[in-house]
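Risk mitigation, structural track. In case the binding assays with zinc ion fail to produce interpretable data, a predicted complex structure has been prepared as a fallback.
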Amino acid sequence: MIKQETITQIRDRASIVEVVSDYVTLKKAGRNYMGLCPFHSEKTPSFTVSEEKHIFHCFGCNAGGGVFQFLMRIDQLSFPEALERLAKRYGIVIEQSERGSAARQAGERETLYRIKERAAANYEKVLASHAEGKWARDYLKNRGV
Ligand code: ZN
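Fallback model:
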């Protein structure tokens, strides 16, 4: 079980701009960074990263989330794998407590948290059409929402 504090600590310590820059050439645009989206093919950048908010978002394909979601999606990592990679990179020790499956739960919380952060319009669109939304839809269904 990975503690929620550890997850928060990793998220806060990790620079999403730095992590995304390994995959995407980013240019500063105002308070954000922009680049060509790695999740869909495009010629004009619609992929934005906000260091302040620790999130990325693509206006073209609606991909979005935090640094964990970015790694999970681009390198097909599980949530614990994404955590581990960032922990290593930023020199954070992952504290484990005894029971398992909490990392997965934390991952679910993290995803829901990100989904809730999105604007309502995006939310519905993601839930309704985006592949990424499928997981959330199933989750919400299981929760009886
Ligand atoms: Zn995109």
